[in-house]
Amino acid sequence: MGRGDGSGRIVSPEGADDAGTRILHVDMDAFYAAVAVLDDPSLRGLPLIIGAPDGRSVVSSASYEARRYGVRAAMPVSQAMRLCPTARIVLPDFPRYQEISRQVMTIFESFTPLVEPLSVDEAFLDVQGVRRLWGSPGRIAQLVRERVLGEVGITCSVGVAATKHVAKMASTLSKPDGLLIVAAADTLDFLAPRPVRAMWGVGPKAAESLEARGIRTIGDIRESPQDMLDRAVGPALGHRLTELARGEDPRAVETTRVEKSVGHEETFDVDITDREMLRSELLRLSDRVAARLRRAQWETRTVAIKIRFDDFTTVNRSQTLAEPTAVGQRIGTAAQELFEQIDRRSPVRLVGVRAEKLQPSGGGAFALWDDDEDWRRVEGALDSARARFGNATITRARHLGRGDGRGAPRHPKAHGTD
Predict the structure, then answer these.
(1) Alpha carbon of 322 to those of 302, 305, 333, 415: distances in Å?
(2) How confident is the model over 56-82, as pLDDT tens digits?
(3) 299: annotated active-site residue
(4) Co-location of 231 and 315 in the same domain
(5) Fewest CB atoms within 10 Å of the CB: 30, 73, 77, 335?
(6) Domain range spanning residue 372?
């Protein structure tokens, strides 16, 4: 299995068999670092850390030169600099990443209308219907790579396969700047020796639970009794892993992407122990989440929080609401209740609030009365005021003067669609 530093890379020879394939997974190589080099060619070949040059920041991304020293995304910048003292720190430029992403996605859409962006730097393409125009899937993948490099100036890696799951695994193995084709007939042989951690959707906890039972490869999953898998990761994921291990993945490329979640999080300038301040911050973030939901005409059925302590231990909690909502007070109350369930009293470095399981506004059943009617009216008035005077001018009174320790996030992310 290839690693994040590019070692263990596997690519297909020219003219490799692509029979039975139709899905491309295209992934930009170290995208943030590549954009930095694009804008400043003097950085080419240097170990780069994308982040802020202070002790509170975390690494957004890193060039392959830095990754070979062990630098990884979400690592504290201070730790990354100890691992790679010669690295250059480059501030992230998210508007620029969006600009380059649009250029790349336009290239994808020039080949096929069936493009499903996963993030700013990766997408699935279904090329089955454009073979007469452009050639076989393997040929289209090579054309995509050539045009992204020639027209945008950065490299990408492409996996070609019969399913989305295998295509994504193949692109990861081929990084950086590679192409790996898995013919439909070769799918099971390709999957068998890969570690369970390489499967799309298997997180560290699920992987540890599987490995503890001696299930270390995808081939092991195929040979394991279903009840053992269910005990290890739960029935839903256990059944899904069985299907994926057999090469079964009916998911189609979705050109219209539904928002799955909306969230905001805050990294403090200093670690916080004041629980009342943390409760207030959760409410403030909930107001921001709710405002975004209302603008997009969504409601949420599930509220989740993230708490990161001073030792970087991270705790996540979620709660399903009785009724869907886009009211900040309701989301904030749920977030605060979740926070109170966390017994640990260590200093807190980061808090986050996320709305999940979204649905269009007004989709729920009508109640005889509306417990949130007053708050809905107040927040509607706040929306109007913010639209007229700007976001920074309107806030809850309880948030005023709470500047001790709270600052802008040091590692800004696109906390919207996931």
Answers:
(1) 9, 17, 13, 25
(2) 788 999 999 999 999 998 888 999 999
(3) no
(4) no
(5) 73
(6) 261-399
